[in-house]
Batch of 2 targets.
Target 1
Amino acid sequence: MIQTPEQVDLILLALPIETLPKTAPRTISRLQATGIKTYGDLLEYYPFRYNDFSITSQIGNVQAGETVTVRGNLESIKTVPTRKRITIQKAVLRDETGVIELVWYNQGYLTNTLTPGSVVSVSGVVESQGKKKSMKPMEYELLATADSKTKHTGRIVPVYPTIYGLSSKTILEKIFFVLDLLSHANESIELIPEDILKEHGLMGLQKAYETIHQPTTMREVSEARRRLGFNELFIRILSSKMIKERWSKEQTTAPIKLTSDDKKRVQEFIKNLPFVLTDAQKRVTEEVLEDIQKTVAMNRFLQGDVGSGKTVVATIAAYATHLQKRQTLIMAPTEILALQHFATISALTKNTDLKVALQTGAHKDITSQKKAGEYDLIVGTHALISAKYDFRDVALVIIDEQHRFGVKQRALLKKKGINPHLLSMTATPIPRTVTLTLYSELDLSVIDELPVGRKAIKTYLTPTAKRADGYRWIEKQIKEEKTQAYIICPLIETSEKESMSSIKAVKAEYEHLKKNIFPMLKVGLLHGRMKAKEKEQTMAEFNAHTYDILVSTSVVEVGVDVPNATIMLIEGSERYGLAQLHQLRGRVGRAEKQSYCLLFTTSNNYNPSRLRFFAKTHSGLKLSEFDLKTRGPGEIYGTQQHGYSDLKIADLSDTNQVFSAKKAVDQLLKNYSVDELPKLNAIMRSYQINLIEKN
Ligand code: ADP
Ligand code: MG
């Protein structure tokens, strides 16, 4: 056990919490269960608020109504029974200036801990009846001597989120113990060189930990938060950059060397597409084609709002790859989307010799190792990455609608002995601060314009009183305009998977709509628990206009493309994040016809300004920035994929903070070598190992 100051140095923060003195094994296992494994983790367990008990007074001077801390000798303490099931503990506290009565309820054990003669400090609001003063202490502590230091009273006291079975007070004790050790350590824990800290006006790391846990004024707390948030961002950004740097050295691959003839054929392919590429599509295609010809494996992240036309970019890249007789895998998050990509890509490439396979749970073109070699492009779900067949020569892997395809998947592919170029695509617009912090190991391509002729989707927040009118209007549109509509049922739970109750709800809604609201129309049903074949069939039928209306859970959220559908009705829209609503809305407006989005709500208990903002805003990026500010990053992407959950204190909506952390990283990389900064180096290593394990 580390106790003497000489033994205490940098490794202190890496010490496991099992070495905490005077700590019950149960306390340790509870801390560990919340992810607190080391002393350093304890220091990063931050208070969520503070009790200001910093005003201390002599007992004779206290005023009724003030929140104050007094200390003195306990003269007496006793438990007074009452007629109800309540007990009262009454004590008298005295100093040289006077006495005050202390009153607790139902804290019988106090008569054992606070014994007459002990020195006690209490904080609370003073009450008075005539000359007699009393207090119901909010906090108390037993002191060794009359001038002992206090922890829980007489200062600004941090309040920690309680952990099951552990009070804020216990957590505080452990954190203060570590801070005390640290104050005796002979080496600094600082990670960032002095000059960089100075330029960004940041306090030292140790000071920041001390301040956030033991502030003397509330003003300092915000300075400490700034430093600690900066630290988190700094570590992440630096880590991403180092991964990128390492990739650029290690990830060598056989380049896809396009001959001038190949390049001509690619241009011809583009010319023969049924539409003209937008400038943004051209630019991004260029970026991708350039990358795949390099010997360093591509790590590109393609962002483009719904409907911006990412699929065709992927197709062109696959086409170029096949000209060099090499294979491309395209992976989609669901079978429906895989099927749809397969259909789209097959159509786009029908006049070429590129051979496309579909490989999903329900549909398998590839049934043998031999067949695996026959195709140029294999479309499937994310399961393709661990497919049982070895594809001939995979040079390009494209992943649709999955965030943070990167570190871990790379490792997986490498294990299979391939090191392809990687392109991940997403329609979820990601605020710049987030891209910068969490994705900076990837190169970014952005499609920032929609094909010409697209009209903004007219979006209406429909009050409950207008519900019936809304339905009649949809019916009329369907009859007169021969259009189709989606009706999305509310999210029952916030979980990303569909629960049984959501399925039940969508079925009931489907029956209700079919019978009572739209008896004259053809209504279809789609949800996540249907068999893959049934889903495929339903989508195909909707696409073929067998149904006028498709009632669905939010499974149609990403990627589905039925150009004739122009109406999107979203039930319970108040429960969705705006980025998610935007995805849903993006299912319509995919051709030149005017499209509409109706927002229905299931309760009246919501803030309409969010939805109004949504109705008038058509930029996905603006919407996700709004989400980031008002609901936090988890809302934009669900909670698992992105590893934000471990951002403890940094605020990604604080643009200044993010940019200054990025600048600091650049400064560090320019003027220092991380290898020569042992503390930072150690952190980087453990951080990157974590990143790989978690993702
Ligand atoms: P997303 O980026 O959301 O995946 P898609 O690739 O599904 O978008 O494209 C949306 C629709 O727009 C498709 O029907 C596609 O054929 C069409 N499209 C793509 N690019 C263009 C373009 N440059 N001009 C016209 N239509 C286009
Ligand atoms: Mg798509």
Target 2
Amino acid sequence: MKTALVTGSSRGIGKAIAIKRAEKGYYVLVNFHSNKNAADEALNHIQSNGGNGELLQMDVSNRNDIKNILGDWIKTNPDKAIEVLVNNAGIKDDSLMLWMKDEQWDSVLQTNLDSFFFITRIVIENMVFDRYGRIINIVSLSGLKGLPGQVNYSAAKAGIIGATKAMAQELGRSGITVNAVAPGFIQTSMTEDMDEKNLKKLIPVNRFGTPEEVAHAVAFLVSPEAGYITSQVLSVNGGLF
Ligand code: NAP
């Protein structure tokens, strides 16, 4: 059964991506950290629309959780090949660098960057064996241009962009593409405390984007027809740079 793992898919952008994968006939692993109600809602939505999947509660910032929970799931589900991996789970914890605490650096780097490494390393084993895979890393405009107050977040996202390009070269011969999608301002809980009315003046299309618009870009890159597109960063930002 072709399977998609979307990290952080209980809410926001990840949820929209998971729903779109299910619509395309994938068995979807809906990963979440602590918000069980939101994860149930996401899976219910998928199932009530004729899709299929299951919840995978796992703290992506914890490498042991990844090894034990995801590693075990893969071992016990040999009939479900993860052919699409979307590394989407992420957090921000902003502060000017001068006042940034060790914990703010550690938690943002562990949740955004370390998770990408430990999850992807496990998942590509079978992809290489099957000689097919699609990996999408959700990064950010912040990782492309750097944003003040986000030294930790910009570093994590820029790190993933570099890793995306290195991996694309390692895995191209195995039929695996690796790309990144870089959203600008998207309406989710991550941006709900932002002043959209003022910020949208900076954006050429004059609004924040929707999670579904990011999911649409992901859908394009994970389609079998996109097999000649790898090592790219596709911005979904309304023209804001
Ligand atoms: P969101 O609405 O805050 O949702 C975050 C998701 O990640 C939730 O499903 C959450 O699970 C999960 N998550 C957080 N920490 C986790 C952990 N340690 N282990 C497992 N899951 C965890 O965020 P979003 O706006 O959709 O952001 C999704 C991605 O897009 C992130 O990588 C973010 O950096 C990136 N991005 C967002 C924007 C934007 O404007 N929104 C812009 C650029 C990039 P729970 O429900 O269990 O908490």
